[in-house]
């Protein structure tokens, strides 16, 4: 087995995945990239700029494709995968009655089923490099308290949080660490998407209008490194996520009041 540690990153063609891949590469890790966006992975490869990077086009909704991707990456690394970063995700906003059935199903499939499939596929590889190997999942501040105007997205991120906590128990005897990141609004291309097909105002505009901060993506990369090497089950990233976690625990009545008054329906 190779001595160089290896991490496989989904959503590695942009945003958080790209930043985490570069951060770990700078610390001499072998990087595996999984994404449906081949061009984006090519950009990440150029940013890394060394020979220890492997790209595999991957749709996280396809269970068999997961096995193919991780088996191929294990061959490329000389037989080891130390971390699988379940990061691929898509946004979906707007009130539930504005969301189409197609949008709901796609968000559930990518954000939740993709994480479950990734965990299943990762397990035999992480067991080989345990103790100390890690499954790292991208949850969200929307997985701390349900976000009005993002019920489906919040449901998926609560699900990712639940998967993380469940597998932390299931895999403890195997020596596999399971962790999650809970970022708030991060400066990535996802902020420039419209929340749903019926909206013509992008997410970045809504965040700015609400007076919320946008956290640099480099902070998430550093948090991912800390999560992999630390003992904390859930790592919040950004002021909004940290304050939400505190308030949801200690001031739940205030959080409920604020969320009920903050939602601005489409067109208002």
Order of helices and strands: EHEHEHEHEHEHHEHH
Q: How many helical stretches?
A: 9
The Cα radius of gyration reads 18 Å
Number of domains: 1
Overall geometric form: globular
Q: Please state the second-level CATH architecture.
A: 3-Layer(aba) Sandwich
Q: Beta-strand level of the residues, as a percent range?
A: 5-15%
The counted number of beta strands is: 7
Low-confidence stretches: 199-205, 207-211
The share of residues in helices is: 40-55%
Strand order of the largest sheet: 3-2-1-4-5-6-7
Query: Which class do the helix and strand fractions yield?
Result: alpha/beta
Sheet with the most strands, sense and barrel status: 7 strands, parallel
> Regarding CATH, which class?
Alpha Beta
Let me know the average pLDDT: 88
Distance between the termini: 59 Å
Q: Could you give me the name of the CATH homologous superfamily?
A: NAD(P)-binding Rossmann-like Domain
CATH third-tier fold name: Rossmann fold
InterPro entries: NAD(P)-bd_dom_sf, SDR_fam
Family: Belongs to the short-chain dehydrogenases/reductases (SDR) family.
Keywords: Oxidoreductase
Organism: Qipengyuania qiaonensis
């Amino acid at each position: 087995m190779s001595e160089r540690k290896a991490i496989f990153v989904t959503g590695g063609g942009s945003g958080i995945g790209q930043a985490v891949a570069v951060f770990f590469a700078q610390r001499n890790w072998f990087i595996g990239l999984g994404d449906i966006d081949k061009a984006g992975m090519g950009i990440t490869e150029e940013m890394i700029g060394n020979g220890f990077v492997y790209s595999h086009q991957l749709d996280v909704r396809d269970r068999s494709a997961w096995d193919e991707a991780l088996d191929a990456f294990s061959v490329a690394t000389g037989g080891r995968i130390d971390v699988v970063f379940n990061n691929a995700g898509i946004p979906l906003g707007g009130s539930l009655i504005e969301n189409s059935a197609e949008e709901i199903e796609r968000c559930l499939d990518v954000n939740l089923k993709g994480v479950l499939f990734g965990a299943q596929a990762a397990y035999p590889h992480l067991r080989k490099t345990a103790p100390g190997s890690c499954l790292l999942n991208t949850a969200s501040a929307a997985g701390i308290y349900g976000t009005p105007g993002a019920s489906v997205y919040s449901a998926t991120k609560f699900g990712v949080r639940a998967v993380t906590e469940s597998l932390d128990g299931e895999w403890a005897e195997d020596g596999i660490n399971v962790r999650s990141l809970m970022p708030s609004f991060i400066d990535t291309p996802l902020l420039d998407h419209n929340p749903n097909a019926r909206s013509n105002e992008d997410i970045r505009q809504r965040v700015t209008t609400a007076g919320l901060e946008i956290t640099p993506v480099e902070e998430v990369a550093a948090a991912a490194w800390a999560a992999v090497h630390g003992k904390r089950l859930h790592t919040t990233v950004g002021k909004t996520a940290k304050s939400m976690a505190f308030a949801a625990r200690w001031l739940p009545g205030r959080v409920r009041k604020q969320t009920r008054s903050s939602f601005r329906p489409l067109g208002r």
